[in-house]
Design goal:
Distance between the termini: 27 Å
Largest sheet: 5 strands, parallel
Low-confidence stretches: none
Number of domains: 1
Radius of gyration: 14 Å
Shape: globular
Helix content: 25-40%
Mean pLDDT: 92
Order of helices and strands: EHEEEHEEHHEH
Strand order of the largest sheet: 1-2-4-6-7
Number of helices: 5
Strand content: 15-25%
Length: about 130
Amino acid sequence: MKMFDSYPFEHELFKKISQHFPFLRNLTLGNYTGQDNKQHSSTFITFPHLEHLDITFAHADYAEQFLFEKSTRLPRLLELHISYDTLAIITNNFTNDLARVNCSKIRHFVTKELYVPPKDFHLYFPLLEI
């Protein structure tokens, strides 16, 4: 599924997508507009079959939405496309544990920037194939 818009995608939309497309394996988001409702409801979202997530051209709010375990669970996520700068910001240079669980099974990490992995990078991506 590919979603592109200039209006924000909110938590409730992702909740509906996870319910109506439980076997969704690929999701690409393109939206540089931040979410209006950053205080997500207590409803936890699970994408049980999502393997590929591309948020390269998405606001950092969507990286938090999908990678922080407090709002979304991605038990089968194997491939992540994201701006390295966005990932470094939301994880506070890989010192914030909120994204660690959803990133732990990722085998392929794709970014458009060149980077030198920081000291704790491997703790987020222990299965990464380099």
